[in-house]
Design brief:
52 residues, mainly alpha, 2 helices, 67% helix, elongated
């Protein structure tokens, strides 16, 4: 898959997380739903870097 398309998927997922949970918190809090959503985003992106 083209690198541009991969970046587009990353941006699409990021926009969904941001829309539903807001921007990343300045300080990570384990119990915070926003922080948890961004953790999931990071896990998805890290696990699929170069595969999307």
């Amino acid at each position: 898959m083209a690198k541009t398309q991969s970046k587009n998927y990353e941006e699409w997922i990021k926009s969904i997380v941001k829309k539903h949970y807001g921007k990343r918190c300045p300080d990570h809090v384990k119990e915070c739903a926003c922080c948890q959503a961004w953790d999931i985003y990071d896990t998805i992106i890290d696990a699929n870097r170069g595969k999307l």
